[in-house]
Write a structure and sequence with these properties.
The protein is built from 12 helices and 4 strands. By secondary structure, it is α+β, with helices and mostly antiparallel strands. It folds into 2 domains: 182 residues, no CATH class; 62 residues, no CATH class. The protein has a 4-stranded antiparallel beta sheet, with no helix packed on it.
Length: 267
């Protein structure tokens, strides 16, 4: 769902009325795809999603690591909940699990519904989910007595359900870091499929990695960066080194090499 504010409604600039808050929603390729499947039309403002798709095809799942606001909240919550854990416990929490494939089945189901004319992607899509929760639940609750953001108190029917869903998404990070991102995010699943076509892959090289597992202690996306073979990460860190390669460093120590996707690393 994309909302459009045609004129400012607030008396002060901090009331956020009339600001281009929809732009980040328009970057969402899942919204664009589901709308196109349901209506047969790619609306003009949703063409911004083509920019996101193009960048994902080139550099992988950059959106998850650098843009997604709900992903940032999940990352911070997961980090905060595990500050006192030792290295072994961190690695175990960030271990890849087969159930992470659930999000792909959820994506297929939601796209099937869209094809049948029912767009339900906004229930699980992290951008509409966070936008809806903040606008309908958190801000009205925080502003109910202050009146700083709205000219009059706002309340909506069944808003507790919207707020509960956001709390559940954030709270699940106490069990496993980035739980929603890893197991239930359909947008992340779409980015995962698109990133299979990126020209770069990430792989460990035995002569530059000491198996310290520092990467796996802090990779809350369970991307298995210390494994022998891997697809693209939801983050993209590196700098040009030699033709056909890119090096990732922790401090001054080279850790990984980015290979062209046509190269096959050891299984």
């Amino acid at each position: 769902m994309v909302l459009h504010h045609r004129h400012p409604l607030g008396a002060a600039w901090w009331q956020l009325r009339g600001w281009p808050i929809n732009w980040i929603l328009e970057l969402d390729p899942l919204t664009a795809l589901s709308t196109a499947l349901a209506t047969g039309t790619l609306y003009k403002t949703l063409t911004w999603a083509l920019v996101t798709i193009a960048l994902t095809l080139f550099v992988g799942r950059f959106f998850c690591g650098f843009v997604c606001p709900l992903g940032s909240i999940n990352q911070f919550t997961g980090w905060l909940a595990r500050r006192g854990l030792g290295p072994g416990a961190r690695v175990e929490a960030n271990r890849h699990r087969r159930a992470q494939s659930w999000k792909y089945y959820l994506l297929i189901f939601l796209l099937f519904l869209a094809l049948m004319g029912s767009v339900q992607t906004g229930v699980f899509d992290p951008l509409p989910l966070l936008h809806r929760s903040v606008n309908l639940a958190l801000l009205p609750l925080a502003d109910s007595h202050l009146g700083a953001l709205s000219d009059e108190p706002r309340s909506y029917a069944s808003v507790w359900l919207i707020g509960f869903l956001l709390l559940a998404v954030v709270g699940l990070n106490l069990f496993l870091p980035r739980f929603f991102c890893r197991f239930a995010c359909p947008l992340g699943a779409l980015f995962g499929l698109l990133s299979r076509f990126t020209p770069w892959r990430l792989g460990k090289t035995a002569d530059t990695c000491g198996d310290c597992c520092l990467c796996e202690q802090y990779c809350e996306g369970a991307c298995r960066p210390a494994s022998k073979k891997i697809g693209t990460l939801p983050i993209f860190l590196g700098k040009p080194n030699t033709p056909g390669k890119m090096i990732v460093k922790i401090g001054s120590v080279p850790i990984f090499l980015f290979f062209p996707a046509t190269w096959d690393l050891e299984p």
